[in-house]
Amino acid sequence: MPTDRSAPLSGIKVIDLGRVLAAPFATSVLASLGARVIKVERPGVGDDARQFGPFQGKTSLYFASVNCDKESIALDLAAPADRATFEGLLEIADVVVENFSPGVMDRLGYGWESVRQRWPRLVYAAVSGFGQTGPLSSKPSYDIIAQALSGMMSLTGHPGQPPVRVGASIGDLVAGLYLALGVVSAIHKRTRTGTGDFVDVAMLDSQVAFLEVAVTKFTATGIDPAPQGTRHPSIAPFQAFQCGDRWMVIAAGNDDIFRRLCGAIAQPQLAVDPRFHDNACRHTHLDELEAEITAALAPHDVGHWVTRLGEAGVPCAPIQTVGEMTRMDQIAARAMVVPIDDPSLGAAKVPGNPIKMASVDARTSRSAPPQLDEHRARLLAELAARVTASQY
Amino acid sequence: MPTDRSAPLSGIKVIDLGRVLAAPFATSVLASLGARVIKVERPGVGDDARQFGPFQGKTSLYFASVNCDKESIALDLAAPADRATFEGLLEIADVVVENFSPGVMDRLGYGWESVRQRWPRLVYAAVSGFGQTGPLSSKPSYDIIAQALSGMMSLTGHPGQPPVRVGASIGDLVAGLYLALGVVSAIHKRTRTGTGDFVDVAMLDSQVAFLEVAVTKFTATGIDPAPQGTRHPSIAPFQAFQCGDRWMVIAAGNDDIFRRLCGAIAQPQLAVDPRFHDNACRHTHLDELEAEITAALAPHDVGHWVTRLGEAGVPCAPIQTVGEMTRMDQIAARAMVVPIDDPSLGAAKVPGNPIKMASVDARTSRSAPPQLDEHRARLLAELAARVTASQY
User: Fold this and answer.
1) Measured between beta carbons, which residues in chain A are less than 8 angstroms from residue B199?
2) DSSP designation for A229
3) What domain range includes position A127?
């Protein structure tokens, strides 16, 4: 029997009410996995992200970066005719995704409790700043609010220096990825039960789930973890070092690697120094160790050290710009920076799908982000054909 | 009909060969969704993370933070008797997860091509630094390598200052979360096709997928995005500000919020200043705007401003420590910092599951992380019973 090479979510239809980032990112991930995603946008304006620069022609590159592979229809959910269309879409959908403030969908008459009565198989997925429950539920939030309240920013940056926001919007992106996982898990459960579910993900909760050992460490010791610059909280040396020309990172994940590192930088005495003989000692004496390694690296440029340390089996890398990353052969081999099928977007590319599967060919481009309301006629015809068919 | 309140992955069995973080985090997420996770560890030593401090008694809190809700058996995959046991586990498993360097499982005779012949329904999920393909495939990697090569570190920190590592290991965690999503997607596809799949996720790829608009912006303009401190790349003002006592963040996501902000800090003239009249202008003149807002905030402490701005509907928050986060009523209401069912771990808690579902009660604790080989006898008995049963 030939392998079924369809994408894993092939056949799944997603109605996407999302704006800006968390929900649109979630549905972008679902689209990468083969789902059909239909954006329902406000007439006239559309998704707020359509206004965010930079622009290529009239198209927001911000919008393009998370809305490839989607269709668009503009609907006013307060207008009766558009409500009928929206309900037609819910009729054919497997999933509806939204990131309004909790309560907005209820006021429109499309809260989970109403929707489940009419469409019991629907998976209803909501991502919000604080979630659908709890005292802060109705508060507005944005990426940096989740990064700040969760403690994520308290872990990031240099001690005693001004705070640092993680340079990508991980407040939204992590929540969006958890939402996508919740959606697929609920779809899996539906194959067992026949009924849909309500998936409720909060940006704050998602950041907390990403604090790693910091929560466990604080609750056990009562000591708040501090920012570490580039240092790892538990492993040493595992951080950035300045070479002759620029910065690199070195990750000595265990004692063997540390010994190889000492050899490669021609400082074999460090490997037998009692201050550095195991990870715990190195962590305690890290200021001294950092000074020794920095002095040893100073005479040569990063290219020299990446080669030398690589030969010695020491994990290391230059701290690259985004541009340097896009030029890596490895990124090309993995189709991780791919063009958009839209000549009007010029050279603009978007990230590929990091979930590679043996049964699915990796896509080497993505479809153009939709113009506002671009797919109205086709979607209305599709709904009309379905109604006509069901009358006979 | 009563609702089926089982967790979505109830009945799914996962064999976890993972060490340290990326794969163990993925299986921790799968366990939160109801999967049964069986860790297969090296005899004597176990998962390397068991050696990472801090410790509570003899238990690594680092290990505890990503290994609750799992079973453990110690197996030497080079020894015939243990190989038979491992194959018995594969016989009952739905999923196997590993984060060895590519090639290690092949050398053990358990690469995907061999395993799929004997167990065609198995979903085989591998997370590695660079993925199973491409010129860097066999290179070792660690969190900070993925953060450095992807460009993530180039976006994080203050311009002209030393680099900053994101304070949580997002190189591992994002890859682990994508792997979990790939696993559940492959399980969903299996209900359609009857066959398993190979899921291949790279830490580098996963970081690239999280660069958001940075890839699109660079490829369109050829200009490498620089670190922004706490500033958002597209929205202004959306960043940290120093108040009288400490730092807070303010997120003026649109023009309305900006006008309300100006009123709340008693600087209404800023709202009508042509330098600041829309997001694009504010972005261009951000240094001046930042100075104005900082001067206005200086006379009062963060508590004053969070109240005042909150009343005006301006999203804002103090930059909290991890400890402050754990004391939030919202975190308690959402069960996002939960105890471990193990008195020997004292006060240590772990993050809860951020995927809340209407059909599943949120867990308010997690099971103790397993001792090395703790579940050997039970697992062997389970496999023996299965063999005996199949003889009749």
Assistant:
1) 355-357
2) B
3) 13-210+335-390
